[in-house]
Amino acid sequence: MNLRSLIPFLDPSVKEWSLEARMLRWLTFLWIAIGLAMLFSASYAIADRDFNDGLYYVERQLLWMIAGMVGFSLLVNSPLRYVLGIADWGMLFCLGLIFLTLVPGLGTTVNGASRWLSLGPLPILQPSELIKPFLVLQAARIFGQWYRLSPVVRLSWIGIFALLLVGILLQPNLSTTALCGMLLWLIALASGLPLTYLGGTAIAGVMVATLSISLRSYQRQRIMSFLNPWADASGNGFQLIQSLLAVGSGGLFGTGFGMSQQKLFYLPIHYTDFIFAVFAEEFGLVGCVLFLLLLVGYATLGLRVAMKARTPVHQLVAIGVTVLLIGQSLLNIGVATGALPTTGLPLPFFSYGGSSMIASLLSAALLIRVARESGAEIVAFPNRKALNPQ
């Protein structure tokens, strides 16, 4: 008995893998392999010190990767119309988990932010990461057929999207709020919504971000340390300075795999948000350029898939996933190199974190599935009721 016989809808209408789908699949696997190697290098010393097991973080990342690969395999072999049909429920479920993180006793607070959720014996989850692929799907469904929807459905889902951003902002998690807001905005822009709507939304977003920064001192301190980290080199500017030292120490060809010095307890959280600094130190400018070329290749394929997609919704899914994976990567790299203020965004497939790994794999699978269906006529939606667009 195989998986296809157990789940009947795993009978894809597209039997052959297109060139874009195959290339995206192998680029995804290459990205994961490089990321696991870097996590091994970046985390070994601190894992050995804290847990007496240098492979502590790598082993757990592998377990999350296996779990994510199950979802990856299901998505790349499932017609996208069925996946779109459950996108609303997945998003609402994750939205509920986000608000659970704000409940005392349920949310796990780390560094002053309640972004994680521990569900009994289950490991800690970060719902704001898990919701990202569902957000792409639901935004594509709504904005992809905006003019076919009733005003009630439009306003209902705009309200839900706004509630999501408020929930993440209250954790507080300004960086993820900004990423999700930009993701929604760019999907709406690609769908052809009037510029008056988009301009008003952009202004409102900037005002909310400004208000958040003015009310939270740690966010203001991050901005100030970004502008001049040397003004408080042993305090708020310490992390950025150590990251810049790591990037600069790499030179042209790097110090060699496993030979980073900054990961030896100088650079904080070097196996999560600042893992690119370790990569830059060990592989130098040449390695960074090659990695950026990988991202360029991935983005090019993603846009090519979007251009070949047969339906507007599929096009927006491809654009959304490309913006999510590549945009988040560039934001993370910008932080590590001092081009952007410090944020808490992980580098997809590199940074340690189960929720990020699963969300990245599911997102990549959606893009590959769109690529597989780009040559076939696919019905965009099943028949749904309530808030689901018809």
Explain what the structure shows.
The chain is mainly α and 390 residues long. The protein has one domain (12-373). The protein is 66% helix and 2% strand. The protein is built from 14 helices and two strands. It has helices at 3-6, 19-51, 56-76, 80-85, 87-100, 127-144, 151-169, 174-191, 195-215, 217-227, 238-249, 275-308, 312-336, 354-373, and strands at residues 107-110, 113-117. The chain has a two-stranded antiparallel ribbon. Strand 1 (107-110) and strand 2 form a beta hairpin. Helix 12 (275-308) packs antiparallel against helix 13 (312-336). The chain is globular and about 55 Å long. Residues 1-13 and 377-388 have low confidence and may be disordered.
> How many strands appear in the DSSP assignment?
2
The percent of residues in helical segments reads 55-70%
Major sheet: 2 strands, antiparallel
Mean pLDDT: 88
Which residue ranges are poorly predicted, with pLDDT under 50 across at least 5 consecutive positions? 1-13, 377-388
Strand order of the largest sheet: 1-2
